[in-house]
Amino acid sequence: MTGMSPLWLAASPLLLASGSATRRDMLAAAGIPVEVVKPQIDERAVEAPLLAAGSPSDAVAAALACAKALAVSQDHPGRLVLGADQTLTCDGEAFHKPATLAQAADQIAALAGRTHELHSAFVLARDGAPLVEGVAIARLTMRPLSADIIARYLDCAGPAALSSVGGYQIEGLGAQLFDRIEGDHFTILGLPLLAVFVALRDLDVLAR
Amino acid sequence: MTGMSPLWLAASPLLLASGSATRRDMLAAAGIPVEVVKPQIDERAVEAPLLAAGSPSDAVAAALACAKALAVSQDHPGRLVLGADQTLTCDGEAFHKPATLAQAADQIAALAGRTHELHSAFVLARDGAPLVEGVAIARLTMRPLSADIIARYLDCAGPAALSSVGGYQIEGLGAQLFDRIEGDHFTILGLPLLAVFVALRDLDVLAR
How many domains does chain B have? Predict the structure, then answer.
């Protein structure tokens, strides 16, 4: 229909309202033409009232995904926009991307020997209004880790450890930190791709 | 200790007895130094008596992983060798890599709308003897697919569809074929990496 992909039926690519190269690459690899527009929102300001009100982390992820989608949608009339976010909680405590390797070490030490939850949310929006949202969960159990092994891991992983909310990249060296993984890989990487596909098929932009 | 990786403690890289680039890349990304030696075995001859005897598919995968590991180990004394194999079964029927796109289409049509099982097995061997083995399972549910959508998918995926036992690559376009994924990504890609790590730590070649 457009020559972009025999499975993608819309006249223009999906607008991805996320600066995450992982999400962009995941969509592109799965045959979805994407253009990235990084949303200009203050994520901590969006989530602050929700966290203060004790909102569950799936609702926080969905609210952030929605804020990103709407921010981009308002500037791009007529385009289908995908916002996405991921939250990490461990026994109810929310974690954020570490800013330094020292913070990453503290965070991994706090997660070691315990099971944490990743909530990955998406919102599809058009013309400034949300059309559909979804959230998926993954549960990951880190093995007990000594301070020495955490230091060796971070030596090896380097600044890449700062690019993910848990201080690890499961598709790389981070795999060595884990005992158990429940949930699909897409959700762990930050986008519940199978649920996004269902929504795109329901919107008739992806071949059924 | 060796300069290869701060987490890898052996004096030489792991010998991977598998021609799969996916397995090689997965291990390398996770910080395991690997050298590939493709085993010269007749896989169909190894599995024929097992299939004739009605052996379960996890046992078939383990036997193939063992045959690969031993074939390479015999030629490389002193080296730690990793053999791996994956089987796909759907309602008890074993599937193999399709040889042509027409076979891939038939196979995907047979799997569509159903849940199939992937068993990924590994065997670690040294000096011609197996040291440890493990098998993990993943269950994948394909959505119902028309002949038209299968044809479009294969047009788009091309010869890559022939490189995997199910005719799909879940990390690429193949994701669009699925409704549900249970099991970790490593197992789906053909190597139960977390179980391999446990074995390597028990053998004192990977940092604990």
Answer: 1
* pLDDT tens track for A164-190: 888 898 989 999 999 999 999 999 999
| B101 occurs within a structural domain | yes
| DSSP symbols for B76-143 | STT-EEEEEEEEEEETTEEE---SSHHHHHHHHHHHTTSEEEEEEEEEEEETTEEEEEEEEEEEEEEP
Do A175 and B197 make contact, defined as CB atoms within 8 angstroms? yes
Cβ of residue B173 closer than 8 Å to a chain A Cβ? yes
User: Residue A148 — φ and ψ, nearest 5°?
Assistant: -65, -45
Start-to-end Cα distance in chain A: 14
> Nearest Cα to A37, choosing from A79, A99, A86?
A79
The CATH number that applies at residue B147 is: 3.90.950.10
Q: How far is B54 from chain A (nearest CA, A)?
A: 31
Tokens of B142: 């394909």
Instruction: Please list the ranges in chain B whose pLDDT falls under 50.
Output: 1-3
| Nearest one of A45, A147, A26 to B208, comparing CA atoms | A147
Determine the residue among B9, B154, B185, B206 to mutate to test chain A binding: the one whose Cβ has the most chain A Cβ atoms within 10 Å. Answer: B185
CB contact under 8 A, B156 and A193: no
Q: Tell me, what's the pLDDT at B84?
A: 98
Residue type at B89? T
B154 — contact with chain A (CB < 8 Å)?
A: no
**Can you read off the two tokens belonging to residue A93?**
């405590």
Residue B7 lies in a domain: no
Q: Which residue of B has its CA nearest to A29?
A: B172
